[in-house]
C-alpha cells in the first residue's frame, strides 16, 4: 500500500512519467492513493500505459484531480488489457457519467474474473490435495500389499516345510508298513514250510498206524513186542520232529503227548480207536468251519488292507503333487504379481485373467497327473492281487492236504487251532495298526484341507483388495473426469461471459462514439447558431440609430 495524497505530483510531467514507469515495472504493489495531486489528462494517459504493464495493483484512488474526458477514455481503454484492478475512484475529475459507468462495468468484470480465477485455483488446490492424498493412500495400500505378500511367502515356505516333514513322516510310516509286510510274508513262508514238514511226518505216522492195525488183527501175542518197537521208533521220530520243529514253533511238542496217548489207547482197546475216529471226524468238521471262517476273515482283512494301502498311496501322491504344484504356482504367481504391481499398476485386470488361465492349466495338469497316478496304482494293485491269489491257491492246496491229514490225528487239530489263534492275533494287530494309520491320515487330510482353505481365503481376500483398489481408481478417474468437465464447463461459461461482456463493451463504445458524434454535431450547430446570433446582433446593432450615431462620431 502506498499513500501519496496532496503532493501535486501531476504538476511535474517528467517526474510523474518516471513514477508511472516504475509503477508499470512493479509487481508487488496492491493499493495506490493519488488523491489531490493535480493530475491532468496527460498524466492519466501515462497512468493508463503503466496499468497496461502492471499485473499486481488492485486499488487506485484518483479522486479530486483534473483527468477530464480524455484521461477517462485512456483509463477505460487500459482496463481492457488490465485484469487485476478491482477498484478505481474517479470522483471530482470532470469525467462524464457514461465513462464512469463503463469503468465500473470493466471493474466488475475484472472482479468476476478474479473471483472465478480464485475459485478455479482453490478447486485446483483442493484437487491437488485430493490427488496427493489418493497417491499416499495408494502407496500405503501398495506397501500393505507388499507386506501381505511377504507374509504369504513366509507362510507358504512354512507350509512347504511342514508338508515336507509330513511327507517324510508318511514315507517312514509306509516304509515301516512295508517292513512289517515283508516280515509277515517271511513268517508265512516259514509256517508253510513247517506245515509241509508236519504233513510229511503225519503221513508217515498214519502209514505206521495202519500197519500196526493190520498186525494187531493178525497177531495179538506179538502186539506187545511190536508196540515196544513202535514206541522206540516213535521216540526216535519224536526226537527228530523236535529237532526239526524247534526253529519253527514250540507247539510241535504236543505231538509227543498225542502219540503217547494214541499208543496207550491202542494198548487198551480197539473201541477207543473208533472213538478217536469219531473225534477226528468231529474235529475235521470244526476245522473246516474254522478254516472257512479264517479264510473269510483273511479275505476281509486283505481287502481292507488293500483299500487302506490304496488310499494311503493315492493320498500321499495327491498331497505331494498338489502341494508341490501349489507351491510352485503360488511362487510364480506372486513373483509375477510383484513385478506387475511395481511396473504397471493399471494392468490389474490383465493379471487376474492370466492368473485364471494359469489356474485352469494347473488344474488340467493336476487332473492328468492324477489320472496317470491312478492308472499306475491300479496296475500295481492288479499285480499284487494276482500274486496274492497265487499264494491263496497254494494255501488252499496246502489246507486241503492238511485237512486230509488231520482226519487221522488230533495233534494237527491243536496245532491248527494255535496257528489260527496266532493268525487272529496278528490280524487284530494289523487291524489296529490300519485303524491308527487311517486316523492319522484323516487328521492329516483335515489339516491339509484347512491349510488349502486358508490359502484360498487369502487369495480371495487379495483379489477383493485388488478389485476394491480398481474400483477406487475408477471412482477417482470418474471424479477427475467430472472435475475436468466442470472446469471445461466453467471455462466455456467464462469464455461466453467474456465474449458477452466484450460485446457489451463494444456496443457501449459504439454508443459512446455515436454520442460523441452527436455532441460534436450539437457543438457545431451551437457554434453556427452562436455565429448566426452574433451576425444578427451585429447587423441589428449596425442598423440601429445607436449604431449610426456611433459610426458618425
TrEMBL record:
- At the top level, the lineage of the source is Eukaryota
- Where primarily located? cytoplasm
Instruction: Show the coiled coil region(s).
Output: 167-201, 245-525
The record's listing under InterPro entries reads: Centro_Cilium_Assembly (IPR052116), Leu-rich_rpt (IPR001611), LRR_dom_sf (IPR032675)
According to the UniProt record, one GO cellular component term is:
plasma membrane
Which terms are listed as keywords in the entry?
Coiled coil, Cytoplasm, Cytoskeleton
Where is the protein found, in the record's own terms? Cytoplasm, Cytoskeleton, Microtubule organizing center, Centrosome
Which Gene3D superfamilies is this protein grouped with? Answer: Ribonuclease Inhibitor
- Coiled coil among keywords: yes
Task: Look up keyword Coiled coil and say if it applies.
Answer: yes
One Pfam family here: LRR_6
PANTHER family, per this entry? LEUCINE-RICH REPEAT-CONTAINING PROTEIN 45, NY-REN-58 ANTIGEN
- Its protein name is LRC45 protein
